[in-house]
């Protein structure tokens, strides 16, 4: 975790944990605005609305929520925000299956 100090790590970890505990329905209900790359959590996780790799993007990440086919969908890592399905961040994990 080069470049992170303990405080940033705990802040991001806490937000991520909160996001992971919310159910998909709750995420869809609260998600209202698109995530901006300038958002502090997005910056900490190096979110970009366009993935540098075609095979690794928000659309095939295990944390993405919502309906297939939507351009912007809720993400468990960024509660209350919609991510671009073509985006990417350092929390990306390939969806099983």
Automatic annotation (TrEMBL):
Q: Which Pfam families match?
A: HIPIP
Q: Where is the signal peptide?
A: 1-31
Is this entry keyworded Kinase? no
Keyword Cytoplasm in record: no
- Which domain of life does this protein belong to? Bacteria
Record's keyword terms, sorted: 4Fe-4S, Electron transport, Iron, Iron-sulfur, Metal-binding, Signal, Transport
High potential iron-sulfur proteins family profile domain location is 29-97
Which family does the similarity line name? Belongs to the high-potential iron-sulfur protein (HiPIP) family.
Describe the protein's quaternary organization and the partners it interacts with: Homodimer.
Q: What does this protein do?
A: Specific class of high-redox-potential 4Fe-4S ferredoxins. Functions in anaerobic electron transport in most purple and in some other photosynthetic bacteria and in at least one genus (Paracoccus) of halophilic, denitrifying bacteria.
Q: What is this protein called?
A: High-potential iron-sulfur protein
Q: Which organism is it from?
A: Alteromonas ponticola
